[in-house]
Structure formats: C-alpha cells, structure tokens
Amino acid sequence: MSISTIDPAVAESEILDPRILLERRERRLRVIMPIVSILAVLGLWEFLVWYNEVPHYLIPAPSLIAKTLVQDWSSLMQSAAFTVKLTLLSLGLAIIGGVLLGMLFALSRTVEMCLFPFAVILQVTPIIAIAPLILIYVSNTFFALLICAWIVAFFPILSNTAIGLRSADHNLRDMFRLYQATPWQRLRHLLIPSALPYFMAALKIAGGLSLIGAVVAEFVAGTAGQNTGLASRILESSFRNEIPRMFAALFLVSVLGVGIFLVTSWLSHLVLGHWHESEIKRET
Amino acid sequence: MNAASPLPKAAGLTGAPVLIDMKDVSKRFANGTVALRGMSLQIRNGEFVSFLGPSGCGKSTALKMISGLLSFSSGSITVNGHPAGESPHGSDIGYVFQEATLMPWATVFENVFLPLKLQGLGKGEAKARVEEALSMVGLANFARSYPRELSGGMKMRASIARAMVTKPKLLLMDEPFAALDEMTRSKLNDEVLGLWRSHGLTVIFVTHSVFESVYLSSRVVVMAARPGRVVHDIALPGADTRTSAYRMTSEYTDNCRLVSNALEGTMDHVDLNH
C-alpha cells in the first residue's frame, strides 16, 4: 500500500493557478500582441523598401524615418508642442462650451430649438471649407486655428451632454421629486451621473477630433516659420521633397492621437469603471 | 358577476384616524384615455390595502396620485390632512417602484442614504439610520456593494430599505415583486408583513396577483379597466396575526376564491374558441 501525501502549498497553487495564469497571460498578450504586430509590419516595410530598392523620396524605410526623427528632434518637438497646445486648448474650450450649452439645452427646449440649428450647421459644414474665412476674419493666426479646432471638437460634447442630461431613469426622477430634491441636488446627484457615460463617449471622440481640427486648420492656414505646428512641418517637407521628414512629422501626429485616445480611455475607465456596463469586465 | 357569496363590505379599522381620503378622483390623460373614473376611498392608519386589478385599471395611477407624483383631473385627495403632494415633508411617504430603481453609480449604502441626503443630513449623522434600514432587510453586509453585484431580490430589498430609511408613516408599493421568482417573492412578502406590523405602517400595495393580495392585506380594493374604476372593496380581517401557515388554511383558499370571483367579474369576456 502506498501513501500519497499532498503538499498543501502545492495543492493550493494548483487550485489557484489556472485562473490567475490565464488572467496574467491575457494581460501580457494585450500588451505584447500590438507591439509584435507593429514590429512585424515595420520589419516587412523595411525589408520591402530594401529588397525593391525603393528610393527614399518615394517611400523611406522606417530606419531612415527614425534617423530623421533624431536629427530634426528639436524642430519637430517645437512643432509638436505647438500642436499639443492647440489641440488641448481647443479640447478644453470644447468641453467647457459643450457642457455649458448642453446644460442650457437640457434645461430649456426653447433655447435648444433656437440654437441647435447653428450647432448643426457648424458641424456639418466641413471645417476645411470654413477655415479660409476664419483665417481672413481673425487676424491672430493662433486664435483662428483654435477656433477651427474648437468647432470640430465642440459638437459631440454638446450633443452628448444634452442627451445624457435627459437620459436619467424616469423612476429615479420621480423619486427625487418625491423627496423634494432641490434643482441643484437633482443636477448633482441624478442628472450629472446619468450623463457621465454619454459625456465620456463624447470626450473620446472629441479628443481625436480636436487633433484633426488642429492639423486641418493649420494645413489651410499654410503658415510657415518658428511658431507653427506639425502640419506645417508636413507641408514644408512636402514642398522641399523631404519625404523622410514628412513621415517623421506624420509619426508624431499619430503618436499624439494615440496618446489622446489612451488618456481619454483611461479617464473613462476611471470614472465609469466601477459601475457602467461599457467598462465592466465579465468573466466568460 | 357569477353567483358567489356576498362580498363583505370593507369596514377598515373603524377606530383609527383616516390617513388617505380620496373623493371622486378622476384622471383623464391628454390623449383622452380615462385612466381612472370617480374613485372614492378612505384608508385609515395601520391598514394594509392592496389595489388589485388587470392592466390598465388605474391601480398604479391611483398610487402615483396619492404620492403626489401624478396630478388628477378632478376630485380631491388628502394625505394626513394635506392635499396630495403638498405634505410639509416628503419623507412621510416611502415609495417602492416596480423595478428596484437604484442608482447604478452608487453603492447600496449611498442608495439607501439618498433620501436622508436630500433632506440635508450628513453621512455621519445618517450612518446609524442607514445601517438600521439595511439590517432591517438583511443587507447589512452589502452596504459597500454596487447594485449590479446584487440579485433581483436583494436589489428589491435595498429599494425597500431606501423607502424605510426616512421612517415613513405610509409605504406605497407599485407591483414591487412582479419581476421576482416565486420563492424570493413569498420571502419578501413575509418581510413586508413584518415591517408593516413592527413599524405601525400604513401600506398600499399594488398587485395583479390574487394570492399576494389575499396573503398580505387587511383589505383588497378590486379595480376594473376601461375606464379604470373601483368595483369591490373587500375586508380580510386578521391580517395582523397571520403567519405563513395561513397559506395552508381553508380561510386563505376561501378568501382567494372570494377575491378571484370579484376580480373575474371585472374582466372583459373573451371567447378564445371563436
């Protein structure tokens, strides 16, 4: 007869292991997979350019773009700083304007009916078509660019805030009435929390749009010189046929966009993670 | 109505003061639908009254009007001597909705705390009362949970705790357990009966279940649809001493038959074979 002993520590780790391991693997994969696939694409790109001997003024290899990025680091960073400033300022103003006007809309149907058409007109008219006019009327180029980027980012915040503030559960509204809540209490404890998922969704969209607005407006403005953004670097490189530099500037625009996306997603998770369906992970 | 034993007329608790007085109350919606026609009813302190009837009989409408959440077209309603909805402090009424109606972004504690918060109480002052309400419904250990983490029955318990946290005199319940499974439902029925007895509440309980109304109430108000109106007012004495064994007695089945017959007379006749 043989006696088999079970080491409790081993047994316990065996019980716990599969789930924790799976979770760890999942988390690792979520980081590793995008990196691997991006590296693979870059490798393929490098190889194809080298193999087909594509001239760098048509498609530069990733290595050349990286080299250009390092060489022109200070001028590109200056431009990036300008674009970041423009994007964040326009996003900030879009949030302030969109939320205030959205609250006004939610409070008064009349105000909404009067002002909504203008908001829609601003939204549906392509910014690239309005930008030249704005550049004519506004003498300060930075303000003109700011207005253009703001127009693009403003609308989703406005419309989602207005819808969100109206989306509170009607039974909960009744309950607040029953307990004779003041208008401020209703706004603070019912309407704003109900609107948050809508607002966070708008913020994710508006974040990307404000960057697009900032870049497009600068393209239209076609400004040159010291105090200009990444769009100007792209234009300038295009005129001078410096394609690697163009790609380097483009790369920085993408990095900015991804950064904005990551920050807004993180914010959304922070605000809604503990309760809203969209941010809750479920075991399958 | 098919011949059944004559219905006992509701006498209510004759000695107790009148808490709710509805006189010839009608409600006509803007689209012309008459939700309720000429409802007159007196409810005394300490009664457990069920509004029983098919969909569209105006039972929920009547409840909303008593709470002041819904206006009426004609007639008058007074609650504790004040016109409905104009009670000096809204906390005299607890209201339990058909769904649990909890704020999903707030913990169970915060949800139950809400009525007190709206009255201007701080978390510190209210803590003991919120905890008392939570343990009253057996949720003391779930104060920190979010509603999505609770089962349907537990959500409903939280909802009842919220209604009870202001220590109301009157508890209005609008088909609160309709969405729950049978076992949870009968357990919660017993708990509501317990609250009614121990807190000297007056309860109005809207339901479409004959069994539930008979098990719970001291009085069943049977309503009919198109237009919504009261057709019977049946007293069921002895509600304050019933135990769950009541479900096994012939008195219970007799009462169920009585109420069921009263309800049947109100239904539109539909010939399914036609």
Structure, described:
Chain B: One of its GO terms (molecular function) is ATP hydrolysis activity. The complex is a heterodimer of chains A (284) and B (274). Chain A folds into 2 domains: 1-53; 62-279, MetI-like (MetI-like fold). Chain A contains 10 helices and no strands. Chain A has helices at 8-51, 62-71, 73-107, 109-124, 127-137, 141-166, 170-178, 183-221, 230-239, 243-272. The model of chain A has no long low-confidence stretch (mean pLDDT 87). By secondary structure, chain B is of the alpha/beta class. Chain B has 2 domains: 1-80 and 169-268, Rossmann fold, CATH 3.40.50.300; 102-168, no CATH class. Chain B contains 7 helices and 10 strands. In chain B, the strands form 2 sheets. In chain B, strands 6-7-8-3-9-10 form a 6-stranded mixed sheet, with helices on both faces. In chain B, strands 2-1-4-5 form a 4-stranded antiparallel sheet, covered by helices on one side. The longest helix of chain B is centred in the last third of the chain and has 18 residues, at 182-199. The interface between A and B is medium-sized, with 20 and 25 residues.
Order of helices and strands of chain A: HHHHHHHHHH
Q: Compute the average pLDDT of chain B.
A: 86
Q: Between the first and last Cα atoms of chain A, what is the distance in angstroms?
A: 43 Å
Sequence stretches where pLDDT stays below 50 over 5 or more residues of chain A = none
Count of distinct structural domains of chain B:
2
Helix content of chain B: 25-40%
CATH topology (fold) name of the largest domain in chain B: Rossmann fold
Give the helix proportion of chain A (percent range): over 70%
Strands ordered across the widest β-sheet of chain B: 6-7-8-3-9-10
SSE topology string of chain B: EEEHEEEHHHEHEHEEH
**Percent range for β-strand residues of chain A:** under 5%
Number of discrete domains of chain A: 2
Largest pleated sheet of chain B? 6 strands, mixed
Q: Which descriptors would you attach to this protein?
A:
heterodimer, A: 284 residues, mainly alpha, MetI-like fold, 2 domains, 10 helices, 81% helix, 0% strand, B: 274 residues, Rossmann fold, six-stranded mixed β-sheet, 23% strand, globular, disordered C terminus, ABC_transporter-like_CS (chain B), ABC_transporter-like_ATP-bd (chain B), ATP hydrolysis activity (chain B), P-loop_NTPase (chain B), NitT/TauT family transport system ATP-binding protein (chain B)
